[in-house]
Amino acid sequence: MTQLEVRNLTPEFGVEILGFDPKAPLDDETRAQLQNLFDTRRLLLFRDIELTHEEQARLCTMLIRKGEAETLEAMGNHESYISNKLDNGVAPIGRLQFHGDTMWADRPYQVLSLYGTDVKQPAAPTTFVDAVSAWKTLPDDLRKRAEGHEVLQTAGAVRRGDMSGVLLTEVENPPTTITRINYTHPRTGETVLYICEQMTKNVLGMPERESEDLLLSLFEHLYRPQGQVQHQWHERDFVVWDNIALQHSRGRVTKEGPARTLRKVASPMPKLRPDQMPKWKGAA
């Protein structure tokens, strides 16, 4: 068994893993250890490792499956880059509100990962919050107001609060889905506070003002400063996280600023029509 050193990033979630070699054969015990850490800690950080796209995709798939797929096609992964320098870079400028990718899909990504391929300093950090811990620590009165209600999640832009510099999405036919606020994680069974400022439009069956008041109260708890963890990016950093349990955001990035190119791999991919894929349209 590979000897891994594991360090907690916070008491609630996240670990840094040292001693892992993605080039080495992965034995059953190490695989089980990584899967358990992913299920219980929800975010894994590896620093200064060499990682190809295929290796990144295989690790993402392995964390939620007992076996390893043979090909990238079988895994349903594709290669994309979050970049302010590449011509085809996704989310090239602006700041990103807190969200989980594809929360608007009936079957959202379970695993999301980023790998630093070209990072110059100072690079905008990625900030994470844990929606599992947020539900567990929700004040009783607020939990009673929220429990059992459903919300509409949308890929279209939701405007609320300070939108200065926010990168918005433009979708011809924005896909939507309805989920419970107290959402049961399909893999771990944990209860997730499943709302986000970027994609949650409203609470179903509530008057508009009451709906917005409840959401804002929940956001205040979910995004409380003491619950946030920032990752300061460097080249060859690899961060992989549970996209259902955690949310992430990003500060403002500009075309003229330092290079910030991160290779993104998610698993499994939701099946969408081309017109349903969000297109970034620039900072507001």
In short:
The chain is of the alpha+beta class and 284 residues long.
How does this structure look, described?
The chain has six helices and 18 strands. β2, α1 and β3 (43-46) form a beta-alpha-beta unit. The protein has a single domain (5-269), classed as Clavaminate synthase-like (Double-stranded beta-helix), CATH 3.60.130.10. It is α+β, with helices and mostly antiparallel strands and 284 residues long. The radius of gyration is 18 Å and the shape is globular. The chain starts with a strand and ends with a strand.
CATH topology, anyone?
Double-stranded beta-helix
The fourth-level CATH homologous superfamily is Clavaminate synthase-like
CATH C-level name:
Alpha Beta
Mean pLDDT: 90
Strand content: 25-35%
- Count of DSSP strands: 18
The total count of helices amounts to: 6
The span between the termini is: 51 Å
CATH architecture: 4-Layer Sandwich
What descriptive keywords fit this protein?
single chain; 284 residues; alpha+beta; Double-stranded beta-helix; 7-stranded mixed beta sheet; 4-stranded antiparallel beta sheet; 6 helices; 18 strands; 20% helix; globular
Write the SSE topology:
Elements: E1 5-8, E2 15-18, H1 28-41, E3 43-46, H2 53-62, H3 72-75, E4 80-83, E5 94-99, E6 111-119, E7 126-130, H4 131-136, H5 140-146, E8 150-154, E9 167-170, E10 176-180, E11 182-184, E12 191-193, E13 200-203, H6 208-222, E14 229-231, E15 238-242, E16 246-253, E17 260-267, E18 279-283
Parallel strand pairs: 2-3
Antiparallel strand pairs: 1-2, 3-15, 4-17, 5-16, 6-15, 6-17, 7-14, 7-16, 8-10, 8-13, 9-18, 11-12
